[in-house]
Amino acid sequence: MLKDIFMGLSQNQFLNNAAKKYGLKMGAQSVVAGTNIPEVIKSIKELNAQGISCTVDNLGEFVFKEEEATAAKEQILKVIEAINENQVDAHISLKPTQVGLDIDYSFCLNNVREIVHQASRYDMFVNIDMEDFKHLELTFNLLDELSMEFDNVGTVIQAYFHKASEYLERYKNFRIRIVKGAYKESAEIAYQDKKDIDANFIKLIEWHLLNGKYTSIATHDHRIINHVKEFVKENNIPNDQFEFQMLYGFRKDLQLSLASEGYHFCTYVPFGNDWYGYFMRRLAERPQNLNLVAKQVFNKKTNTIIGVAAGAFILGRMTKSNKKKSR
User: Fold this and answer.
1) Domain Proline dehydrogenase spans what residues (predicted)?
2) Neighbours of 195 (CB within 10 A)
3) In Å, what is the CA distance from 213 to each residue of 9, 159, 222, 240, 241?
4) Residue 154 reports pLDDT greater than 60
5) Which residues are annotated as a binding site for substrate?
6) What is the pLDDT, as a whole number, of residue 7?
7) Average pLDDT over residues 253-264
8) Position 296 pLDDT exceeds 70
């Protein structure tokens, strides 16, 4: 129930626009690494100093105008330049809709091509993030076309899809990030039960570790992480064939522990003013995420999931109230 509420909130364009005006409020500052490039570079340097690499996501959603997509592309190009100039250990993650996929496919392809080309000049990897199911095949099409020109591009496979194994085998020769999946999808195309998703997630990880090029294992679940540790040991899979990934701001101690054990570790680092949709999906994913944010937003007496949900509700009410006053 609460997951559905936050997923609904994440898709609310009105609240998304309002959130930009309030900055990183309601705990978002704990999971978003700043609103500008200098701030995100500072965060990357801090993580690098602890033996952790980064993948950087310039947040942005609800892009339906060419000028907005072009602005997003230019910002990502600036991030690439900043990563190179500061010589930090980081690469790029991008969402195709942010650079025009909902506007025109060819327009989007040209934007992504420019980004991948610029990154290739610095031997920098670009991960094309997956979004909801309606964008899945279009995103695969982007990858197919770009891979004919560049070798520094990969994508994401979401374990909750019934056909995830087919997708993974189709792209086994690419660097792939395997995730459970963060969007609300129908039972016709995606598993709904957590046990089914977890089982498929492990199945995909094991298959790609044995058959794929390079595997990014994106999870905060220590049980799955421990399973992977045993699996790679039993199958003599070298550490340079995979990495663990977690989101910025979550399970920091575990992130540091894995890096200190000698595993390749990469933190997914989001930044920017357009943080709202990303933040709401993180709240929707796991009860642990809600509790973590609550601890940083409310005092101990109000440290409840209801408190976080109330915060989201208050943001909406504040926005509507201000809109009425401005009329």
Assistant:
1) 41-291
2) 8
3) 37, 18, 24, 11, 7
4) yes
5) 95, 281-282
6) 52
7) 97
8) no
327 is catalytic: no
Percentage, residues of the chain above pLDDT 90: 69
178-208 pLDDT, tens per residue?
A: 999 988 899 999 999 999 999 999 999 999 9
Name the active-site residue from 57, 129, 198, 274. Answer: 129
Q: How far apart are CA 206 and CA 216, in angstroms?
A: 12
Cβ–Cβ under 8 Å, residues 92 and 115: yes
Q: Which of 57, 177, 198, 251 is catalytic?
A: 177
Q: Lowest mean pLDDT: which of 11-20, 115-124, 158-167, 258-267?
A: 11-20
Measure the CA–CA gap between 92 and 258, rounded to whole angstroms.
22
Read off the tokens for 259.
């890096």
> Beta strands of the chain (E only): which ranges?
53-58, 90-94, 126-128, 153-158, 175-179, 214-218, 242-247, 265-271
177 is catalytic: yes
**Domain residue limits, the chain:** 1-30+275-322, 33-274
Beta bridge partners of 173: none
**Binding-site annotation: residue ranges for FAD:** 130, 158, 180-182, 194, 219-220
Annotated binding residues: 95, 130, 158, 180-182, 194, 219-220, 281-282
Q: What is the pLDDT of residues 26-40, one digit of tens each?
A: 555 678 888 899 999
Instruction: In whole angstroms, give the CA distance from residue 232 to residue 81.
Output: 36
pLDDT for residue 292: 53
